[in-house]
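User: Hi! I'm a student and our assignment asks us to look at how structure tokens line up with a sequence. Could you show me two examples?

Assistant: Happy to help. In each example below, the sequence comes first and the structure tokens follow. Example one:
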Amino acid sequence: MGRRLELPVLTEVKDQLTQALSRLVSPMEVSLGFAGGGCKAFYGLGVGFKLREWGVRIKEISGVSAGAAMALCVVSESEEESVQYFEAITARNPSNFSLSNLWKGDRAFPHEQMYRRGVRFGLRLDKIRSTGTKIYIHTVRAYPKEKSLKNRFRMARLISETARCFVLDDRDRTEGKPGFRTAEIIKKWNMQDVDFTEKDFANETLVEQFVMNSSCIPPILDLQSVDNEYYFDGGLTNNLVLEKFDPNAKIIGVYYEPSTIFGKSEALIKKSLLLKPSTKLPITSFDYTNPEGIRKCYELGKADTEARKEEILNYIRGKHQIWPEPPFLLGKI
């Protein structure tokens, strides 16, 4: 006679078969949005990894700044390799700022080259194309370049004015108040929102540049330019792009600061499932010297997602669609 299966084993097999049949009858699909946040965005990478591990199909995905890099890693299915790679290069980086390099006329910040290498390593363009996933990489385009010396002064003004207005507006949003300064700067300098999609992905070099455009925060990352146009960090106007998704989609958004979602449509927020870290993240946005923090951030994303597995899967399956009104919509952050 054959060996009898233990009850826990039978239960596990039953659960796996139930999940497989459920996906065949009604595939689990989601539209996933990643906010920007520098190294904090490795948390979102952990979330994306877990969703894929459960068999959830990512029908649409959006990313802003570092969130764009993580979005591409998730669709490329290179999450773990990308974390290992970034751990390795940050372990070899002694400092986030080098005064001696500045005196020599070299880059004082190491971030751009390291970031480019990380994006390039995690990108699998053939895999991205094979998934059929709709992708949005959000950035902000400024006025066309000019070659006169005067333009350098104008560019310095643009950077300083934009940075100041964004910081002040972000402070206001954190306090539950709307900010209008950045919108005024956007209008003054004739800037426009731009969303690059998978249809624009002609080659890997171009996709890498799209991520850099979305992530541009001078002086940490140089001002980016493509085809005679400048680009700034997409977080200037929208740090979590959910508005581009199919209106009938199940939407999951990953964010880190309350200011990211302040002012979004109440209807959009209520129909979406928003995830944020359960505890303070062990790394700051631009710390490229902390491989342990990167790993812990990624693992926390996985652990938080696993802890909410039933809630998340019920939401995707349509069992829970309306969420309580968040306090930030009432200005009570």
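Example two works the same way, sequence first and then tokens:
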Amino acid sequence: MAIRMQLPGYAKYRTRYVLLVLPFYLFTFLPLCAQEFGMRWIYHPQAEETRQIWFKRNIHMDKPLASAILSVASEGRYIVYVNGYNISTDLFSSNPRGAIGVRDYEIGNFLHKGTNTIAVWYSPVNYTKRQLYIVMSGQWEDGSPFFMDNEKGWLCHTANARTLPDGNEEIDGPGYMANWNDYDWKEDSFLLSEWQRAEVAKDLKPAVITFCRHEKPAYRTQRILKRSTFSQQGRTLTYDFGQSFNGWVRVTMRGMKKGDVITVNGLRYICKGGTDDQACRRFTISTAGIARIILPAGRSRSNITTVEAICINDIPSLKP
């Protein structure tokens, strides 16, 4: 049975978590679900439906924290970075079937005195304004509480990639580098003038929320396969790995020109040129036993340096 709860602030959020999650772990093995109410979701107001999005927020700390928990929810898939580091051992985080997952991350080891940057790479599953809900709670070293809400200070920027309705992705290599030199979008001082404020969604119908257990399987690399056989027909190269797998194909290229387009099992990658290009999915999973690569005109197998199959845990059908 769903439980209706309010989640707008630190006291209510942490009280809810202690009172409900503790008895849940003690007395049942069923997932804890509730009706979302009071969660203030943020979103990019101008992004197209398929566009992946970067979110970022800076927090200044005059003193170090003794502990810090980052709680994250999204209706899409996401990767969370603190000061440039992926805080999870998962390749990306996704939702359990039929609900929005809330995950807690201990991030005290990633924080330091001074300016800290929290960044999220978000990928849509369907168009929604429930793109990101993220709060942080903890304690200063003197024992006093700390809380960061979800509504203020967040900036957003369209990423150089799209998640397409057919389950594939499009990645624009030149789009990531355009006018940005050697900066990383996750940095605290990264061209903030090109970012815009994230908006707070209003008047959304309640959704089902699930509190995810950390021991559940996740999107993690199991092993990496090398091709066993190879064939070519025109500009189409086929690398056979000798077995079916769920995951990504990662293709490393050299000598490609800026704007060259290569497709890899449905992934469309636009080359940035220069040194090495690497075409690989980020948020979507494909099932295959081969890598079918279609090269642009004027390119050949000699431009391909490595082709790898990254086998990833397959969990979309599992219950939370």
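Here is something you could point out in your write-up. The first helix runs from residue 10 to 27.
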